[in-house]
Amino acid sequence: MKITKDLYQGSLTLLLDYYQLTMAYAYWKSGKAEEEAVFNLFFRKHPFNGGFTLAAGLEYVVDFCSNFKFSKEDLNYLGAMKNQDGSRVFDKAFLDYLKEMDFSCDIDAVEEGTVVFPNEPMIRVKGPLIQCQLLETPLLNLINFQTLIATKAARINLSAKGESVLEFGLRRAQGIDGALAASRAAYIGGCSSTSNVMAGKLFGIPVSGTHAHSWIMAFPSELEAFEAYAGAFPDKTTFLIDTYDTINGVKNAIKVGLQLREKGKEMLGVRLDSGDLAYYSNEVRTLLDKAGFPDAKIVASNDLDEHIISSLKNQEASISVWGVGTKLVTAYDQPALGAVYKLAALKNSKGEWEPKIKLSQQSLKINIPGYHTVKRFYSKDKAVADMIHLEGQEYTKGSLVIIDPSDQTRRKRIMPAFYQEEELLKPIFKKGKKKYKLPSLDEIKVKAKKQLDSFDKTHKRLVNPHLYPVGLEENLHHLRMELILKSKEENGAD
């Protein structure tokens, strides 16, 4: 099967949940389809109990929205849907409406590689209500996973403290799409290469790898296997040394390394994939150094993650390259980010934005209403606070108080005049036309590192990270509280 042709059939517009279509149809039937709306995509809690999240997936969003159009095949499929009584689910006139519908939304978003925090809009969509609604699931799908993996990769790379992290997860990833998206996001998060050759081809990510245990087992002896591999790759020799016995394995690697040296080549290193990595890496390092190979690297793999790497670093393991697979590409300890997409405002007949509030028994799930945006304040190159405020609203440059949306007792006073400001939401589409120049993947990776460097190390620690200040500008906070109380009164909520 040709995946793109036979499975996707050239269109991804139906990559949505069915209820978006039923709502779209009902909007159309009730005459609300063209009302102007604002939706925000955001998350409520950092993944992995961490103190930061790294945004990724925007390039996929740009590609999806640039090609947002119901194809003939899409419409034929929808037209064939039947109710229980045999009648069509969707009127032909509605399908004709979808056929003529051109993407016309404004989209503003944080750039890939940006460090983001709960309740901040990562993507803001403004446009016809029907189009905004149809974008809900695809945008969440494209942002949720890559942001999750980029964040996991960043945590792993921070734990490695500047040493190379290789992404090895293809065989354990959730399908083809999951594997490719994970390799891309892991590279943004700081990984230096991938084992995924397709990702290398599509995204330009450096590829790396050595050999498996089966290579060793295919020869009469480990030594002969190493010699044969060195003969095939004299300039790229890293030997997997734990097929039978790790200590004997490194001794055989040293023998072949000396043979390579006689030919003017140099063994790059060895890889450990099992056993007590702290103990064996130190034993192997001693043997390599005594044999005259102080520059040979020791690569470790075997179900690594940020916590295991941190532990091995604390044990002073002699490992300088980390191969991370399953626990990275599957986000093993938290399989979903949980970003949501909520209506924030509707434009009324007077052309005014009416803020919309969603209530919940869980205060965490009460959204931030209104057409709002987010600003970051820096002191020199260090981020000090983020402020969520209504778009276009003037605020004092003197003294500001920002209020945590999840705990109004937690407040921070800032003096904007003493800081540099950055609007985090950048214009991506204007009335359906792309305005944003996509950076290269390497540029995104550099941005991610610069962003992470701009935050204090206390926000990036693995356990009990310090809370970075994010708050609502006072007027937005008061508006939110007024709407909560008003909505409870009008809807009879306790």
Looking at the structure, the CATH topology of the domain at 162-329 is: TIM Barrel
> Which oligomerization state do the chains in this entry correspond to?
single chain
The profile of the biggest β sheet is:
7 strands, antiparallel
The number of distinct β-strands equals: 21
For the terminal residues, how far apart are their CA atoms? 56 Å
Shape: globular
- Structural class by helix and strand composition: alpha/beta
CATH class of the domain at 162-329: Alpha Beta
The radius of gyration computed from the alpha-carbon positions, rounded to a whole number of angstroms, is 27 Å
The named CATH superfamily of the domain at 162-329:
Aldolase class I
Can you give the helix content as a percent range? Answer: 25-40%
Summarize model confidence as the mean pLDDT.
Answer: 95
| Largest beta sheet: strand ordering | 13-12-1-5-3-19-20
CATH architecture of the domain at 162-329: Alpha-Beta Barrel
